[in-house]
Predict the 3D structure of the following.
Amino acid sequence: MPSGLYINPTLFNKYIRNLEKRVGDKIDVVDAEFFAGVREMETLAKQNAPVDDNILRSMITASKDPAKKLSYTLTSGAWYSAYVEFGTGQYAKSYLASIPDNYWKDLARKFYVNGKGWTRPHPFLYPAVMTTLPKIFNRIKAIVKAK
């Protein structure tokens, strides 16, 4: 069973395809802006996460691949993160049916055990990502326009 919940660069790549070509010499500014947005996701996810004993919140981190531009991850390292995010059993099934993005559904399937369980979902990463992405792109559009 996987440990923690890892939002990898694949999700972000879906949104930043060909961005490097479009921003030209402003790639460093855009890279910094996008990473600032991913850190904003981290903050929002921490605010959305249940308090429990503060372990879950403390294990949510944003990071950037220092070797690559436009490559970021958002991670919730607590082993139970996915069960909090998606819920379990029928609660998970119902919640996932409401999510249009297959990336998130595929991610949840990695944590599927037996379809049983009574944990209601308490989404904290998904809302943080989906709320922040449009803001990031509006800021990046403004950078590109100023070109």
The CA atoms of residues 107 and 116 lie 18 Å apart. The longest strand covers residues 60-64. DSSP finds eight helices and three strands in the chain.
